[in-house]
Design goal:
The complex is a heterotrimer of chains A (520), B (353) and C (320). Chain A is α/β, with parallel strands linked by helices and 520 residues long. Chain A has 19 helices and 24 strands. In chain A, 33% of the residues lie in helices and 25% in strands. In chain A, the strands form six sheets. Chain A has a six-stranded mixed β-sheet. In chain A, strands 18-21-22-15-23-24 form a six-stranded mixed β-sheet, sandwiched between helices. In chain A, a hairpin with a 2-residue loop joins strand 7 and strand 8. Chain B has 353 residues and is mostly helical. Chain B is globular and about 70 Å long. Chain B is built from 14 helices and no strands. A two-stranded antiparallel ribbon of chain C has the order 1-2. The radius of gyration of chain C is 22 Å and the shape is globular. The chains are: A alpha/beta (520), B mainly alpha (353), C mainly alpha (320). Chains in contact: A-B, A-C, B-C. Chains A and C meet through helix 3, strand 8 and helix 7 of A and helix 8, helix 9 and helix 13 of C.
Chain lengths: 520, 353, 320
């Protein structure tokens, strides 16, 4: 095809299967024309990262070819990709805080004179590039004194200094304020004018429509569409991205909600950069109800979960569990109010990899009566209860002493779920409870959440899996940009399409509609 | 077989390999420098078992190392690398010596001294933990500072408070007889401290693996985020671990004084603290294995001492063995390929079944 | 006491302070460069001890002080490479390996000394040389300054050059920039194609050269022979000094001089039969206090910075 031959970058038929059997990319085609801004969109786990890793030489595909400027290429590492003119701006900045802008820009490729860095030359070149592309930062400033937006400019300068012709930006606007975003767009368009090709990875449809020329949509590892932005509507993109609803086959009776056990009022949580990641939100979760939080990741869900469970401080607002304000309470104190938490990152927070299953099952209760007496652990009781949980939750392990490390992901998650559910919580926070685990285990975890609800627990379910939110929840809120964008008191009234529009910021409900979720 | 067993097996293999390699290198060195290498090697390896007195020397030498090794193990269980054990051991010996000069009744005297020695050890070992918890100060740097400070304070106390002008050398006055720990084995200097060391070993094992405090210490050490998530007080656990570990080190310093000496005469930090780090590394923080590691260290020391007296090889060869063992035992990448293959093969077998 | 005070204000005291400062300063610089690369080098004590011994051996056998100096540096660098092999290649624990290196040096040097001389305590029987003492023409004739600035061992002058060189390395040379990057943010280093382990190896090598100079100074300048354990914790003092000096070369120079002065003062006290322990102790107490102050200062600054960033972000957000 002539079309492909003119492409500056052509990735064809890319298939990548990870050793654990996960098919990350399945016959993906990805073509980028010279001098365009090309959006690569898709949900988390759709295969965007893997595709970019393959382009960068960090992963090798099982099948498929990559052509750069018509030449077949096969990079063995990032250095080769950089030399070939491909530059990546990572979401987590790769900058040395104690150094100046110019030093960061030239790092690894310093202009030298008699063995010393020619700092004037470095500053001059930095300034030159920043003038050329309108990326205004002081070359002499230290990174630690810069705002996020400025740091991102430094990242772009770094890539341009290495003479990149293809610039990959991984969700660049996730960390920016609206002003900074607007500024970035002006600069990117300027770069486009100067012949630089931009690959823009994002979820934000508005931005894509505003900025990009063409787009490629990935869904579940496949490229489902390639289109010019002018010829497609936002809701069509949304549909392509989220796809058709999949029936998970979780059966449940309708909820009989009681009074709210978890209440959040005007909560503000700042992230490390001082931004309001959770921006003044209020809601309540009632006993015997599963409230699902739908939303594209990075819209404040993580910060919300950390604040409710006492793992981070919140800037303002009130969190009440079982009628008690948790401000100043310790993690243990909050748990003793009847709170349990299935965390998003099971290997960091949920489980201790090197400890055995028994030991992992008692981390929240080891000090309590029955588990220890005169300070000594009651191993008979601990082990027999552990065995009950192992069989009750179908945890596959050789023995309760086996380190969690050697269990499969699904079984590790079952250990976490077993611990958190067997605490008989009044309030259960389940954050991405089925992420990255097999279908059987996921089904088990979802049914368990419903069973917990039926015994009267108030359950807050945070999930990036829209099908899961739809099927498991009794009512749903959508989080977008740190705020609640919508509330559906009856989950059956919502569909993926409707939620998608709120998740992607195309629509927002009125304040009155959203206020109902506080259950005053 | 599960992956923990494989891990353990690889660790045992690594330890054996470290011992064999270090011995081999030591043997080569001996052959290179000695005119009577056979004599040297045989007295080095067999000497400690040749007489009761010499075997007694091994046991005596092992006792203080057990204490510091156990103390370090408890602190390393929460991943706190506390070099202040050196200063703590030294300082507790001094305080115990000061107590030993005060007249007191027979049964009570050593108990009071050993207890105060323990308190001293705990107080010194907790300092780096406090500085780290409060101000985030690197524990290695602050521990080194405290060691220097302890050395100078100790030297001052020895020279101006405990000093015996009649001794003819730098030493304290002679201890009261009431503090002396009774002899355990006639014909040697093995004292009741050995029993105390045994008790401490059992205590530490139970504490670390079967008590709620030990549980919180180990979980924090293995995965701090998990511990915080579960509601374990992480800072508190660190401080607690250093207090308990430091107390044991201090008990070791005091009982060493009362069991082996009649005067205090150390003018510099003894190496016992660093020995503790070494045996804790060898035993991989398991108190139950500390006596074995301590026995080994004491055995090579006594062997080298006998070798130095019966041949032309200096006893400092021990340093070579020690250094190689420490470096090799901690080597993550050593035998890593073997471990990976074993685990893979094992899981492949599991899948087939 | 009066006598002590009088001594302090003499030129001799300053001169001896300089003499004592030199090895601490060189060690501190050696620790600084590895610290910047993210390695806590507690093995420096051992590297220095090996250097001190091999400087003596090298100079005694070749009857050349220069060869002796080179032997000292080679021994120290070699010790550094053992450290690097275990920590970088076999991924042994950095602190344990450093400790092991110190133990190896403590015993190993005595062992080697015994093999060569049959004496365990000192190398007096070896006819080793000293590195030259430099008299600077003209300056030596200036009344007070002459005695202060002239007539020191060549390493003393070298150590001051090393301070400048270290400053240049860290701020003006590509290697220094890369060392700082590797220590602060290894992922960044990898992303721009910097070989992290290679940079660490280079830092350890530089550390070895500096420890080599320090060791050679001890046995070929400060004293004319080697004695077992002659480094006497100076490596650890170096760790303290570069920390107190906020891990920059100039600060390290000043902090090392504080350590040197305290040592010199303590030596005066010893001669006067006054308790010297508290003087000796002072720099270590100062170091701890200094670390606390620096930490409090840093936390405050950080909080302020975050607050202002947050305000800025919030202002931007509201403008929308």
């Amino acid at each position: 095809m002539v079309f492909e031959l003119t492409s500056i970058l052509a990735m064809q038929g890319i298939t990548k299967i990870y050793p654990n059997g996960l098919i990350a990319n399945r016959d993906v085609d990805f073509m980028v024309e010279k001098g365009e801004i090309h959006a690569l969109i898709g949900e988390n786990g759709a295969g965007k990262t893997t595709l970019m890793k393959i382009l960068f030489g960090a992963e090798q595909p099982e099948r498929g070819t990559v052509h750069l400027r018509g030449e077949p290429i096969n990079f063995s590492g990032p250095m080769e990709a950089i030399k070939a003119g491909i530059g990546m701006v990572y979401q987590h900045f790769m900058l040395v805080e104690s150094m100046t802008v110019a030093e960061n820009v030239v790092l690894g490729l310093e202009p030298c004179k008699w063995g010393l860095i020619n700092i004037e030359e470095a500053q001059r070149r930095t300034l030159e590039i920043s003038k050329q592309y309108n990326l205004n930062v002081d070359p002499k400033a230290r990174i630690m004194d810069l705002s996020i937006g400025q740091k991102q400019k430094v990242e772009i300068l770094k890539v341009l200094y290495r003479k990149a012709e293809i610039l990959i930006l991984d969700e660049p606007t996730a960390v920016l304020t609206p002003q900074e975003t607007r500024e970035l767009f002006v600069q990117l368009k300027e770069m486009k004018e100067k012949g630089i090709t931009v690959i823009f990875i994002s979820h934000k449809l508005k931005e894509i429509v505003e900025l990009c020329d063409r787009l490629t949509v990935l869904r579940r590892g496949e490229s489902v569409a390639r289109a010019s932005v002018a010829g497609i509507t936002e809701s069509e993109i949304s549909k392509l991205m989220l796809g058709q609803e999949v029936q998970l086959g979780v059966e449940k009776e309708s909820a009989k909600p009681g009074a709210p056990s978890l209440r959040v009022k005007n909560l503000i949580v700042r992230n490390d950069e001082g931004r309001n990641a959770v921006n003044d939100i209020s809601f309540g979760v009632r006993n015997g109800e599963i409230l699902g939080i739908a939303g594209v990741e990075g819209n404040g869900q993580t910060e919300l979960a950390m604040a409710i469970s006492g793992l981070t401080k919140y800037a303002a607002g009130i969190v009440e569990i079982a009628g008690k304000d948790i401000r100043g309470a310790s993690v243990r104190g909050i748990r003793e109010l009847g709170f349990s938490h299935i965390p998003e990152d099971r290997m960091t927070y949920g489980a201790c990899a090197f400890a055995g299953v028994y030991e992992n099952l008692i981390s929240d209760r080891y000090y309590k009566k029955g588990y220890s007496k005169y300070g000594l652990l009651q191993s008979n009781h601990i082990n027999s209860e552990g065995d009950e949980l192992i069989s009750g939750y179908y945890i596959k392990c050789r023995s309760g002493r086996e380190p969690v490390l050697s269990l499969s992901g699904g079984n590790i998650q079952k250990v976490v779920v077993a611990r958190e559910c067997s605490a008989v919580p009044g309030v259960l926070l389940a954050n991405q409870p089925t992420r990255g685990i097999d279908v059987m285990a996921a089904g088990f975890v979802r049914r368990k959440l419903i069973a917990m609800r039926d015994t009267g627990a108030a359950i807050l379910l945070i999930s990036a899996d829209i099908d899961e939110v739809l099927e498991v929840s009794d009512s749903i809120i959508v989080m977008q940009n740190g705020k609640i964008a919508a509330y559906f008191s009856d989950a059956t009234q919502a569909t993926a399409e409707i939620l998608g529009e709120y998740m992607l910021g195309l629509k927002t409900q009125t304040t009155e509609e959203i206020r109902r979720v506080f259950h005053e | 077989m599960n992956s923990r067993n494989i891990e353990n097996l690889v660790n045992i293999l690594k330890t054996l390999m470290a011992v064999v390699v270090s011995y081999a290198i030591a043997a080569v060195i001996i052959m290179l420098v000695s005119d009577m290498p056979q004599q040297a090697i045989s007295s080095f390896s067999m000497g400690p078992f040749s007489t009761l007195r010499r075997f007694g020397n091994v046991i005596e030498g092992m006792i203080p190392i057990i204490f510091t090794g156990i103390g370090v193990s408890i602190m390393l269980s929460i991943r706190f690398f506390n070099l202040a054990v050196s200063g703590a051991f030294y300082m507790s010996a001094i305080i115990a010596s000061a107590i030993a000069l005060i007249p007191m009744s027979v049964g009570l005297h050593p108990i009071v001294g050993i207890f105060l020695g323990g308190i001293t050890g705990a107080a010194i070992c907790v300092l780096p933990a406090l500085l780290k918890a409060k101000w985030g100060i690197n524990e290695v740097v602050s521990a080194l500072m405290f060691n220097f400070v302890a050395t100078f304070i100790g030297s001052y106390i020895l020279r101006f408070v405990l000093f015996d002008p009649m001794a003819g050398f730098m030493a304290s006055r002679v201890f009261q007889d009431t503090v002396r720990l009774p002899l355990l084995i006639q014909g040697t200097r093995v004292h009741v401290g050995l029993i105390l060391a045994g008790v401490v070993t059992v205590f530490a094992y139970i504490f670390l693996y079967h008590s709620k405090w030990g549980y919180s210490i180990r979980m924090t050490g293995m995965n701090k985020s998990f511990a915080i998530f579960s509601g374990i007080g992480v800072s508190w656990a660190t401080i607690f671990a250093t207090v308990i570990g430091g107390f044991i080190v201090g008990v070791g310093g005091a009982s060493e004084m009362y069991g082996m000496f009649t005067r205090f005469q150390w003018t510099d930090l003894p190496t016992t603290g660093f020995d503790g780090v070494m045996v804790a590394a060898m035993a991989r923080r398991n108190p139950a294995l500390i006596p074995i590691a301590a026995f080994f260290l004491s055995y090579i020391r006594v062997g080298a001492d006998i070798m130095a007296r019966s041949s032309d090889v200096a006893q400092e060869i021990v340093a070579v063995i020690q250094a190689i063992i420490i470096m090799m035992i901690g080597a993550e990448a050593l035998l890593a390929g073997l471990k990976k293959r074993a685990i893979l093969k094992n899981s492949a077998k599991e899948v087939n079944v | 006491m009066e006598a002590a005070i009088r001594t302090v204000f003499t030129m001799d005291f300053l001169v001896s302070s300089i003499r004592v400062t030199t090895p601490i300063l060189l060690c501190a610089l050696g620790v600084l460069v590895t610290n910047k690369a993210g390695i806590m080098n507690i093995g420096i004590e051992g590297m220095m001890l090996f250097a001190a011994l091999f400087g003596v051996i090298g100079s005694a056998f070749t009857q050349s002080a220069l060869v002796g100096l080179l032997c000292a540096i080679a021994a120290s660098v070699l010790a550094g490479w053992i450290f690097a092999f275990f920590t970088l290649r076999l991924r042994s624990d950095i602190l344990l390996t450093g400790l092991a290196l110190s133990i190896l040096a403590q015993g190993g040097t005595i062992f080697i000394l015994y093999v060569i001389t049959g004496d365990k305590s000192m190398s007096a029987s070896l006819n080793s040389l000293q590195l030259p003492f430099i008299t600077i023409p003209l300056i030596k004739d200036i009344p007070i300054l002459g005695a202060l600035l002239s007539g020191h061992n060549i390493i003393v002058y070298l150590s001051l050059i090393c301070v400048v060189a270290m400053h240049m390395l860290m701020n003006k040379m590509p290697l220094g920039l890369r060392i700082r990057c590797v220590g602060e943010n290894p992922a960044t280093a990898g992303s721009v194609g910097i070989d992290v382990n290679m940079i660490k190896l280079k830092a350890i090598t530089i550390s070895g050269v500096l420890a080599g100079l320090a060791g050679a100074y001890l046995s070929m300048g400060y004293l004319p022979w080697f004695t077992g354990g002659m480094t006497a914790g100076r490596g650890f003092m170096g760790i303290a000094a570069q920390n107190l000096g906020n891990v920059v070369p100039l600060g390290t120079l000043i902090a090392s001089f504080i350590f040197g002065m305290a040592e010199a003062l303590a030596n005066v006290f010893v001669l006067l039969h006054v308790p010297h322990e508290f003087v000796r102790m002072t720099p270590f107490v100062i170091t701890i206090a200094g670390l606390i102050v620096v930490s409090i200062h840093r936390t405050r600054k950080e909080r302020k910075r975050k607050l202002s960033l947050g305000k800025r972000q919030a202002a931007d957000g509201n403008a929308e």
